[in-house]
Amino acid sequence: MMQTYRLVKEAKMIKTDDFSSVFNFRKRISTDHLVLHYQPNQLKHPRLGLVVGKKTAKLAVSRNYMRRVLRELFRLQQHDIPHADIILRVQKKFNKADFQGIKQEFTGLMVKLNQRLVRPEIKHEHGQELS
């Protein structure tokens, strides 16, 4: 079956309880603009939650742009992301001029997340270390 790049409803985190459980898990990875909070889940797919506060960007149009960009980056890479609940929090405002940098930060965060979540499982399942 061919992979679809559609962002399905099940891939979005909306409930406050879901957000609270990820924040309480206390695992995070940071870059200049983004903070990624994560928690492994038992689902067969990753889920995304976004937090863009008014302190970061006063105008709703700016906050919505940042959400759109992050949602799109997640959508395109969702098949390479381990099964986890992910909350992306914007800690520094960005705009269209920063897009390439944000794309690199997002990709770097996903690589680090993969290393933290997938590597131990692979090593454990096959009983041999990967180089």
Record the strand order, biggest sheet.
1-2-4-3
Rounded to the nearest angstrom, the radius of gyration is: 15 Å
Q: Compute the separation of the termini in Å.
A: 31 Å
Which regions are unreliable across 5 or more consecutive residues at pLDDT < 50? 121-131
> What integer is the average pLDDT?
87
Number of domains: 1
Number of helices: 3
The top level CATH class name: Alpha Beta
CATH architecture: 2-Layer Sandwich
Determine the CATH topology. Ribosomal Protein S5, domain 2
Strands, total number: 4
| Proportion of beta-strand residues | 15-25%
Structural class: alpha+beta
Using the alpha-carbon principal axes, give the shape.
Answer: globular
Helix content: 40-55%
Q: From the structure provided, what is the oligomeric state, counting identical versus distinct chains?
A: single chain
List keywords for this structure.
131 residues, 3 helices, four-stranded mixed beta sheet, alpha+beta, 4 strands, Ribosomal Protein S5, domain 2, disordered C terminus
Characterization of this structure:
The structure is a single chain. It is built from 3 helices and 4 strands. A hairpin with a 3-residue loop joins strand 1 and strand 2. It has a 4-stranded mixed beta sheet, with helices on both faces. It has one domain: Ribosomal Protein S5, domain 2 (2-Layer Sandwich). It starts with 15 loop residues before the first helix and ends in a 5-residue tail after the last helix. It has 131 residues and is α+β, with helices and mostly antiparallel strands. It is 43% helix and 17% strand.
